[in-house]
């Protein structure tokens, strides 16, 4: 298993990420997660669409809450050809409850709790916490990874404008 250090911190303390960082310009890695209905979801589920994959530690934290709500607002303006997917280790039941309470209806949440398939495929699994680090990936309609953003300090939000610009570049 590939271990990467010095990529992210939690409250200033360095963490170890498991899995390789996916290469830009190459096919985005496939993964297998569960949606809120306990149905399998993978990258292939969004074939033909621009897919924004947001890796977050937990929806039950303030920063993940803000990030997911912000992407939910942005998704309304992005149109039906862009799918925003938030991936966390939260159980599908907790994701469904959180989305209902937060009024999040445009972003899809998926759970990586079972196999850490997404975390290992995208290199976002935190060894010390068995949570996902904060990162954003943009995949074009052909399944090619065109953008990645690793948020250095996981208690910080991503650069939303940079993500939106990355989406616009491939429209």
3D architecture notes:
The protein is an alpha+beta fold. It has a single domain (about 5-170), classed as Glutaredoxin, CATH 3.40.30.10. The protein has four helices and eleven strands. The strands form three sheets. It has a five-stranded mixed beta sheet. It has a four-stranded antiparallel beta sheet with strand order 1-2-8-9. A two-stranded antiparallel sheet has the order 3-4. It has helices at about 60-80, 90-100, 115-120, 160-170; strands spanning about 5-10, 15-20, 35, 40, 50-55, 80-90, 110, 125, 130, 135-140, 145-150. The protein is globular and about 40 Å long. Helix 1 links the parallel strand 5 (about 50-55) and strand 6.
């Amino acid at each position: 298993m590939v271990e990467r250090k010095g990529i992210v911190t939690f409250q200033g303390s360095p963490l170890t990420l498991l899995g390789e960082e996916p290469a830009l310009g190459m096919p985005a890695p496939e993964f297998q997660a569960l949606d809120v209905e306990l149905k399998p979801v993978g990258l292939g589920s969004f074939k033909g669409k621009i897919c924004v994959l947001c890796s977050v530690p937990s929806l039950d934290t303030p920063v993940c809450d803000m990030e997911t709500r912000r992407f939910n607002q942005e998704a309304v303006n992005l149109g039906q050809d862009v799918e925003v997917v938030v991936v966390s280790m939260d159980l599908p039941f907790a994701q469904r409850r959180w989305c209902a309470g937060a009024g999040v209806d445009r972003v899809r949440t998926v759970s990586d709790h079972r196999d850490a398939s997404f975390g290992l495929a995208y290199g976002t699994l935190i060894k010390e916490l068995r949570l996902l680090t904060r990162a954003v990936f943009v995949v074009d309609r052909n399944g090619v990874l065109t953008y990645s953003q690793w948020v250095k300090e996981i208690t910080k939000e991503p650069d939303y404008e940079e993500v939106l610009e990355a989406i616009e570049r491939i429209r």
